[in-house]
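Fold these two proteins, one after the other.
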Amino acid sequence: MNGVHDMGGLQGFGPLAAESETQTLHDDHLFDHDWERDVLTMTLAMGATGTWNLDESRSVRESLPPAQYLSIGYYRVWLQSLERLLLNHQLITAAEQASGKSMTKAAPVKRVLLAKDVSTVLRKGAPVNRAVDSLPAFALGEQVRVRNLHSSTHTRLPAYIRNHTGIVHKIHGAHIYPDAHALGQGEQPQWLYNIRFSATELWGEQETRRGDVHVDCWEPYLCTQS
């Protein structure tokens, strides 16, 4: 969707304050407040139940009102999105959300992530590559154009590359298609490509810095350059 979350290529948000690799290895630099640790914990624990998938959770975060999304901070976005997911899947009621107290018997979930298993589960991850019968439509080194798509629902196609031309740099294989997965339409795996764009192609002729931008694009986002 064309939401405020899609900030790639936008201006006016100020410089990024990058932390060193050494800093990011320490827990103190991952959270500004103790409650943020709890939000991350709850989000991971509920995601592990299998009640919803990663793409659905991203879609809910993106659907927050723009002013709210920009003003409440990273982990409050996660928290309010988690509350929406719990409501959508009837794991809590609106009255429970308002009171902060459980009023009904807990609904059953598919899986429970135990504390002793957290490290193993996080290290293992959840692979999203899939086997498909079709062959990739585009070859390495081929010039392709990104389709000018304006989805009203979740997509991993950033706005700043729409209708631009790039080169197929790498073929990752077939992966879960997030645009369908977020809507509960199944995995519908599609071929995934790494596309290389020149800086001038994306930012215009006035761009004097040399370099390329690489973006992973699912096959439905692409077409041949005519």
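Now the second one:
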Amino acid sequence: MDDKVKLKKEDIEYKVDNIVATVTLEIDKKIDLVHVARKFIDSEYNPERFPGIVLRVPEPKATFLIFSTGKMVVTGSKTENKLKKAVTKVVKDLKSIDIKIEDYTIKIENFVASGGLNKRIDLNLATIMMEYSLYEPEIFPGLIYYMRDPKASFLIFSNGNFVCTGVKHEHQIAEAIFKLKDVIQENEIYYKSEEKSSSEEIVFI
């Protein structure tokens, strides 16, 4: 899903920016990270600073953190298909340098998506009307909203742009966005076309 996905409800658009996953390798002994780092030219290993190898895979693009226990963390993929291809490639490469792997499992931990609501949002009103929200404009210009069902976290900005995190299944992204849109619509937490946000009303003399 590299391109934006257009949802039917008022043409809301979003795109998946990142998928975070963990991979568990079935191994009979710990992985020799020094050996792996020497064989993989795209890897970085500095055990004094970090206990794992950082491996960057150019195609399909992904970054792996590989630990001696057989645990891996994968970031940077934008589709589940590309994530699986990247994991398959790394497992194959590890086997090619005599790392014995019986099997492996992939668990998606988080989708990160971004998009726009096509409305300017009154964040001061939102923090009052939306339960489980936090807005401290002197610290950060966006509102943080914790959705309970489906479980997701949003960063919402006054121009209507948002970032959605914490979703573990791709279909829940659209579900969470629709629910967010409904909350904003029902509570009228947006500026009408003739209204101006407080930031637009500031006049410098």
